[in-house]
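2.7 Reproducibility. Because tokenized structures are sensitive to small changes in the input, we list the exact sequence used for Cytochrome P450 oxidoreductase, including any N-terminal residues retained from the expression construct. No trimming or masking was applied before prediction.
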Amino acid sequence: MAMADTPPVVRPVLLWGPVLLLVAYYPALLIYRLFFSPMSKIAGPWITRISDIPEATALKDKRRAEWASELFAQYPDSVAVRTRPNAVSFNHPDAVKAIYGHGKGADEFGKSSWYDAFSTTGESLFSTRSKKNHARKRRMVSHGFSMQSLYLFEPYVDAVMEIFLRKMDEFASTQQPFDIYFWFELFTMDLMGELSFGHNFGAIQGGRPVKYSKLVELSQHFANLSGMLPFGKYNVKVLSMVPLPYIQKLYQARLEYLDYARQALEKRFQDNRNQVLGGKPRQDIMQRFIEAQDPETGGRMDFPELRAEASSLMVAGASTGSVTMNWMTYYLSKNPSVKARIIQQLEQMFPDNLDASTPLPFAMLNKLSLLEATEIECLRMHPPIGYAMPRMTPPQGAIICGVYVPGNVDVGVPAATIGRNPVVYRNPNIWNPDRWLDEKADLATMKTCFLGFGFGSRQCIGRNVANQFIIKMIATLLLKYDIELEDPNLVLGTKEFTILKPDREYNVILRPRRH
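Resulting structure tokens (single pass, no recycling of outputs):
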């Protein structure tokens, strides 16, 4: 009986033990983070030392990149600020090279667990954290993004551009104001469908976004939120179980988007395997992924891996390309002298094609340094991804710009912040593409701090593809139409939907150019 009577006496003690430990643990943790952590002396509000809430709130309010820049403005003498208990952002050229450069062995800054949230049916080039796996993937597909491949892709780009230009002709004939950014988004949707799945989605002809565009935005927001959790590869699963309607809406969008990508890729295999253009087998981006072989093992990507890459391509290509063309149109309209110089160069280069009835060939356009500088300057001021792409410090920690950061801490450089660093860029808030053509400027440092496409071995592999269709589109529009803002006094800001987009709708007016 004595033994039977023991549990009621002992059980309360067994229960109170963990409770007392928790009660003691959390205050001790807060005190440690505030005063005794190796990162406690890094600049930043006290709340970011103990809580993820400020950054999560900024993300929910669609202003995380702006929030990070505001933190640096609060601590102008600091090269680093604490954005979360386990995250530090830097604003210095040396930090770019240290964090995103080519580290070796123990000095390597690997991708943080934030990227696990972007792995869907498999790891993509963007989401994989494994240096070995990334190197394998890059070996397999790098030729598909070479300059030679761009010329193979160009007929598909031209085909979608011709549909777009017919729509622009309609607006030019009536000279009615319209939202050109909306149509840029439709164009890039159709183009990435053409290059990724072998057919465009009919967005331009239908005059409305396709289903996946909204799903992409919501699912990326879900990935960003889950990437802030401390559960590593389980972040997505944990967040998906949170019963808040807002979270469940984002999670369902993620599931629908992945299913959408699966159906589109299956259709590609079923209907477009033997599609030809000009009598030659179709050679678009997805075909390059399908045919890619590891030169060392001979292995190919399976369907889940291809599906992950397709999902990543649709996000990267469509969202970033359209917003960059938007900013180029806006700033050229606000700076007619720069626009006139580009048009003059185009007229000299294409004297027999002044009506630009067909898209201009990229082989000649890539020689226009001012047009390229215009694109780079827009990306400097408005990088598609404005916040820091996180890397993790090596286990032994690291000294970055004289600041010691312990091991396994997220570190990064926000593109939107360093892109306007006055030490790197003179008059950083002034749009001036000629800064990239100034031989007296410190172009090496400027290019280091230009993170519009990332930096180092993990920078965007599709940079050449995006550059091709952006330059072709803007050059063709400038040669074919006079483009004016409906409101000449318009001042556009940004709002963050994972991608930094314009903060309001605006209209332009097209008129056929007279030569």
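The longest strand covers residues 80-84.
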